[in-house]
Design brief:
Length: 126
């Protein structure tokens, strides 16, 4: 899983820097490339579709203010459909691990994309 984790980490750094890494999106999120690219370019609908596809049963929180765009994601341990407590440790502070504070403000979908990537990186650590 180290190769995937390293690739996701590299992708996250490019997204945070505002570089459009379409080739890496394709390699890592192939079935969801259009959602990832859409989220990178500002589509909240695309970010939601990506979230639902790669993190089913996870909750999300996205916001924006004058200074920053903020997002975080975490497994919903109360979800009766996905029963994520069997897959993820509830003691881990997922919301803190995925917390994204992107400055300057102006693209909350990209902040959400970063939070999703942070969750996938943590998952890849196993």
């Amino acid at each position: 899983m180290t190769d995937r984790r390293d690739a996701l980490d590299e992708l996250l750094k490019k997204v945070e820097a505002g570089d459009a890494p379409e080739v890496q999106f394709h390699a890592l999120l192939s079935r969801n490339i259009f959602h990832a690219i859409g989220a990178f370019h500002g589509s909240l609908d695309a970010a939601l579709a990506l979230h639902k596809a790669v993190l089913p049963g996870w909750w999300y929180q996205v916001g924006s203010c004058h200074l920053s765009d903020d997002a975080r994601v975490s497994p919903d341990f109360n979800c009766p459909i996905h029963e994520l407590s069997a897959q993820y440790d509830p003691a881990i502070g997922w919301a803190d691990l995925t917390d994204t504070d992107q400055r300057p403000a102006g693209n909350p979908a990209r902040a959400w994309l970063c939070a999703i990537l942070k969750a996938l990186i943590e998952e890849a650590k196993g």
